[in-house]
Amino acid sequence: MDRPAFLLSALGLHVASDFTERLRPFGLEPIKFALLAHLKSDEGSTQQSLADALGVHRNAMVGLVDELEEQELVQRRPHPSDRRAKALYLTEPAHELVERGYRVADEQDADLLSVLEESERPQLISLLRRVAEARGVNPQAHLCMTQNSGPVKQPPTNRADEDSK
Amino acid sequence: MDRPAFLLSALGLHVASDFTERLRPFGLEPIKFALLAHLKSDEGSTQQSLADALGVHRNAMVGLVDELEEQELVQRRPHPSDRRAKALYLTEPAHELVERGYRVADEQDADLLSVLEESERPQLISLLRRVAEARGVNPQAHLCMTQNSGPVKQPPTNRADEDSK
DNA sequence: AAAACATTGTCACTTGACATGACAATCCAG
DNA sequence: CTGGATTGTCATGTCAAGTGACAATGTTTT
Questions:
Q1: How many whole angstroms separate alpha carbon A8 and alpha carbon A31?
Q2: What DSSP line would sit under A31-92, residue for residue?
Q3: Could you give the 3-state DSSP secondary structure of residue B76?
Q4: C1' of nucleotide D6: residue with nearest CA
């Protein structure tokens, strides 16, 4: 079975599930890691804007933030300019946790590429990036790991509209 | 974000979801396509052996076969040598449907690789295959698309047990 | 300013997938 | 023949994800 789609799908599932396991010892799920990482580079943002950035529904953010707040990783503070919204902030432990999460990701990448020659690694990355770009793949939708955000938006097939079809 | 794990996960999700959509017009879900395809190359097998091959639970096969039987794509016949088991067979329409499913997969592969130069396509496939092989990725677990079959079994990291860790 | 409408965070509810456990029928080992 | 395993089936329980509604607040229109 040398079908690239097969390979990509199977590898993607493996990688996602593997990442989940690697994060588990830290009491962190991928989506929560993504949330914290986003927050770290954009503190004070609202639940809504974070939800948009992560591709999850506003309603789902409530439970997510509830749990992270209970773990003392984020704080809900009143938003300075909008009394409807909550401004989210990381605690100090959360900052460290995000760093560790990135290190986990680094390790996974290293393990993944360990079978390849040094020169092949950037090749693979480049090929993947080009395919992902061409297909309009959302670069962070993978952390949701749950449902997919609806049907795949079809990029115009790239080849000048295909022969017969 | 040039992390290969990120890219693979995101691309895998895209590809899986895309395949689901491409199959939808035929009234077929990926897991059912996999089931029919397996059956085509191994007619008369039991639900149990098919379940093992596809990585789904025996209980789940019941509903799957129920629906496929209702669509007149498979038949349950008494197993010749084991009166507990059912032997599964494809109907004629199902044979054609599997062919069409393979053609859909071919089209998806072509679309996926269409951004790459001719010479790069086998490169990507080869790199993916090697990584998948090294990580012990089950070549067809991707069609389940639902949950993952538990924690990823860790291949021995490939590099002579890593420095410090 | 008032009224109409949109947005934010929250909650209750429904839906559907998935795993678990039990069961009868049948097979197989001793 | 008896005890234990296997096959297909069903009835559950559990849990996540989506939907709709809501109060509070912000924004736009008149």
A1: 21
A2: HHHHHHHHHHTSTT-BHHHHHHHHT--HHHHHHHHHHHHHTTSEEEEE-SS-TTSEEEEE-H
A3: strand
A4: B84
Contact A36, A73 (CB under 8 A): yes
Contact B64, B31 (CB under 8 A): yes
Give the residue among A80, A91, A31, A86 at the shortest CA–CA distance from A56.
A31
- The pLDDT of residue B23 is 96
Question: At a CB cut-off of 8 Å and minimum separation 6, what does A26 contact?
Answer: A97, A100, A101, A104
What is the distance between the alpha carbons of residues A54 and B95, in angstroms, rounded to a whole number?
A: 42
Residue count of chain B, please give it: 165
3-state secondary structure of B158: coil
SS3 B90: strand
User: Are residues A122 and A129 in contact, defined by beta-carbon separation less than 8 angstroms?
Assistant: no
Residues of A in contact with B111 (CB under 8 A): 157-158
Contacts of A104 (CB under 8 A, 6+ apart): A19, A22, A23, A26
Residue keyed to tokens 């991707």: B142
Report the distance separating Cα B105 and Cα B117, nearest Å: 20
Closest by CA position to B145, among listed B7, B10, B13: B13
Q: Tens digit of pLDDT for each residue in B91-112?
A: 999 999 999 999 999 999 999 9
Chunked into runs of 10 residues, chain B (165 residues) has average pLDDT values of 91 94 95 97 96 95 97 97 97 98 97 98 98 86 45 37 34
- Cβ–Cβ < 8 Å for A2, B129: yes
Q: How far is CA A6 from CA B73, B106, B112, in A?
A: 24, 11, 11
CA distances from A25 to A21, A29, A39, A97, B80 (A): 8, 10, 21, 11, 50
Of B5, B19, B135, the CB nearest to A5: B19
- Give, as ranges, the nucleotides of chain C with any atom within 7 Å of a protein CB: 7-12, 17-22, 25-28
Q: Tell me the pairing of strands B86-90 and A86-90.
A: unpaired
